[in-house]
Write a structure and sequence with these properties.
214 residues, 2 domains, mainly alpha, single chain
Length: 214
Amino acid sequence: MGFFKRITATVAANVDSAVASMENHDAVVEASLNDMRRASAKAKARLVRVTNDGVRLRRKFADLQTAEARWVERAKQYANDDEAKALECLRRKKDCERHLASCEETIQQHTELESRLKISIEKIDKRYQDLEQTRTMMRTRQSAADAYRTSELVGSPSNFLNVDDTLERWEARITETEMGIGGDIDPNHFEQEFIDDEERAALQMELDELKRDL
């Protein structure tokens, strides 16, 4: 099974488990996002190791090419004067050729693995971004739906009546409290006393004027 397929299968299994055990949709999506973050981190760490190995292999390949060319030059140098040395140089050159072939094959394998890892990471990150965007949209829709449902409940006729009744009861309680603050004094009776005193004073003045005219 490919690397990305294994990651996808793991994520799917974890999501299925989360769905079975949780009713909070947002939490289910969050669990899936966490799995994808971990999968992406692991894949990127592995890609770094593979890339570093590829760098070392290419450096080794270049060193082998340099060594092969050097042994060829040495074989030419001793071809006429020392045949045994020339042959040994050619034998070393053949060893380099074999190592070059093996190294080239390994580099090819690493290149393919590096390419697959990059594709897997791109797929995981793309899926993560899509899922994150979808979750954001779903959260927005959920908030709007909750707000609409709340407004519908508050705006229903029965709830209007309930609110009105509550306000009336609130006003009655405040009135009772205000009356209690004034004690036993009747505000209307207290005001009437002032009115009576003022009228009595006015009548007294009128009577005094009548007496002066007599």
